[in-house]
Amino acid sequence: MKIFTAAQVRAWDAATIDEQGISSLDLMERAAACCTEWLLHHCPPDAPFALFCGRGNNGGDGLAIVRQLLAAGRSVSVYVVQPGRAASPDFAANHTRLAASGISIGAVEEGAPLPGIPAGSVVVDALFGAGLNKPLEGVAAALTVALNDSGASIISIDLPSGLFMDRPSTTHAVIRATHTLTFGAPKLALLLQENAPFIGAVQVLGIGLSTRFAQETQSPYFYLTNKEAKARFRPRPRFAHKGSFGHLLLAAGARGKMGAALLAATAAARGGAGLLSCHIPRCGELVLQTALPEAMLATDACEDFLTELPADMDRYDVVAIGPGIGTSDPVAELLERYLQHSPGPMVLDADALNILAQHPYWLLRLPPGSILTPHPKEFDRLFGTHTSDFDRIRTALDQAAALKSAVLLKGHHTFVALPDGTGAFNSTGNPGMARGGSGDVLTGLLGALLAQGYSAADAALLGVYLHGAAGDSAAAAASAEAMLPSDLILHLGNAFRRLY
Ligand SMILES: NC(=O)C1=CN([C@@H]2O[C@H](COP(=O)(O)OP(=O)(O)OC[C@H]3O[C@@H](n4cnc5c(N)ncnc54)[C@H](O)[C@@H]3O)[C@@H](O)[C@H]2O)[C@@H](O)CC1
Ligand SMILES: [K+]
Fold first, then answer.
1. Ligand 1: which of 8, 58, 80, 94 to mutate, judged by most atoms within 8 Å of the beta carbon?
2. What is d(CA 223, CA 425) in angstroms, rounded to the nearest whole number?
3. pLDDT attached to residue 168
4. Rg of the chain, C-alpha, whole Å
5. Which CATH number characterizes residue 254's domain?
6. Are 69 and 113 part of one and the same domain?
7. What is the pLDDT of residue 238?
8. Structure confidence at residue 243 as a pLDDT band (50, 70, 90)
């Protein structure tokens, strides 16, 4: 599913109107009807609604929703912000229709007291949507703060008011929505971690926008859903043997961190690698051999951490390195040797990324077709401090192109920057995965997918999707609170089955 810019969203509306031979007012009525239906099904049946409308088409949506809620027999109050200002034609048309019903339309004016919100009300925010072009100020900003402080549930139409679609919004007043009902496709701003306080649960409402426009219009960003993951998945051929699925070398662990190695190794085994060898320090030999008999060991001479390259590196197709290795000087020197001698693409995670942050020029040795998996803090350590996620995703795309590799930015909607300049936001996963160990599972899985011959782009997209899907399956079984990263591994089978 493509993610469009504000300009493209406007063009999408226009293309729909043109293609379907309808008016913009008809499309507004349709969008409002989808919102009204959602409100009627998801809000308490006796809750009064309080709608706050701007003077553009987002406000026009709000006025149409008021009319539809009244027709459904619901109790509704409605306020227009700065009613003296110029209005869009579709707002004006809906205002005339609503006024004819006899309902009193309140005003929120500069300098006048703000209306109170009756207890138990559901607030519907239709102040500004995709047309926002400057930060909220004056009475709109004051109203936003008051609504946020009211404690009421706030349902934002299309976007939380004050939230820019394509640029940072973290320094000014923005509605803190409980739910955002957005039209057509998720918008970039709704997928970024920094906007989490504003967007609440996002619901994408299909309002019948042109599918041809969506197919034909290019966008650098897409939403990674089951459809996109399925398109990249290759079921195992019937006559395959273990040699068909590659040999992964996983370098992981140190004393006290063998859990990270075991999680990554088990995920690699379940992720489908034909052969798995683990380069681990001596102290981990017993635990790994016992817990994962499927793995072969390339045990380091050192008891407590990794120090030397395994012999015969050419035996391996892919190297995954990082979970639990630590950042001491000998380990850092070893990472440099791994970068020099890796026989194929690499997955770099956790401490490997922290070491690289100290030696950024080593990145030049990264084999093309590799995958880097930083979370935002590791990302900033590696590529410099960023003040917003918009900047981070641009850097991720630049780095992915320069390194000819996939660069992840892990988060609720993990961003996958691909070497061809496009990037995907993942649709799977849940807060139960925000735990130490989840990243180790992802590293093993990504290594296994690369070993099976997937390109960096396909392995990164599939791996991130499967990891989240396994998390969703684990949360369904054990709850987001009680699930463990090791449950992700047990649920990888359910995740793979979603791709058949
Ligand atoms: N175009 C269409 O056919 C459809 C549009 N829809 C709705 O229309 C919305 C976009 O409508 P508009 O383009 O009219 O824009 P908005 O309603 O978001 O904003 C209205 C106008 O307010 C002004 N404005 C922007 N920022 C401001 C600020 N900080 N303070 C004061 N004034 C400000 C601008 O002139 C802007 O055009 C979408 O988000 C969606 O809710 C839906 O009805 C679906 C169909
Ligand atoms: K809004």
1. 58
2. 5
3. 94
4. 26
5. 3.40.1190.20
6. yes
7. 78
8. confident
User: Does 138 lie in the same domain as 187?
Assistant: yes
pLDDT at 83: 81
Domain that holds residue 475: 226-497
Q: Are residues 213 and 262 in the same domain?
A: no
The answer on 128 and 244 residing in a single domain is no
Q: Is the pLDDT of residue 317 over 80?
A: yes
The CATH number of the domain where 201 resides is what? 3.40.50.10260
**Where are any strands of DSSP class E within 332-469?**
346-348, 371-372, 406-409, 415-417, 423-426
pTM of the model: 0.94
* Centroid of ligand 2 to alpha carbon of 126 (angstroms): 4
Strands (E), 247-363: 247-251, 275-280, 296-299, 318-321, 346-348
How far, in Å, from the CA of 3 to the mean position of ligand 2?
19
105 and 232 inside one domain: no
Percent of the chain, pLDDT > 90?
A: 95
- State whether 111 and 45 are in the same domain: yes
Q: Domain check: are 315 and 180 in the same one?
A: no
In terms of domains, do 196 and 313 share one?
no
The amino acid present at 95, given as its one-letter code, is H
The residue whose C-alpha atom lies closest to atom 5 belonging to ligand 1 is: 57
Q: Which amino acid is located at 17 in the chain?
A: I
Q: How far apart are the CA of 264 and the centre of ligand 1, in A?
A: 48
Distance from residue 23's CA to the centre of ligand 2 (Å)? 22
Q: What is the pLDDT of residue 486?
A: 97
Between CA 153 and CA 134 the distance in angstroms is 25
Which pLDDT tens digit goes with each residue over 247-275? 999 999 999 999 999 999 999 999 999 99
Residues facing residue 80 across a β-bridge: 53, 107
Atom of ligand 1 nearest to the CA of 24: 3
What are the structure tokens assigned to 280, written together? 């681990």
Q: Whose CA is nearest to atom 20 of ligand 1?
A: 56
Q: To 10 degrees, the CA torsion angle through 382, 466, 442, 373?
A: -10
pLDDT at 85: 86
Ligand 1: list residues with CB < 6 Å.
Answer: 13, 24, 27-28, 31, 54, 56-59, 61, 88, 128-136, 140, 157-158, 183
Ligand 1 atom nearest 10 alpha carbon: 1
- How many domains does the chain fold into? 2
Q: What is the pLDDT of residues 386-430, one digit of tens each?
A: 999 999 999 999 999 999 999 999 999 999 999 999 999 999 999
Q: Is it the case that residue 242 has pLDDT exceeding 80? A: no
Nearest residue by C-alpha to atom 11 in ligand 1: 57
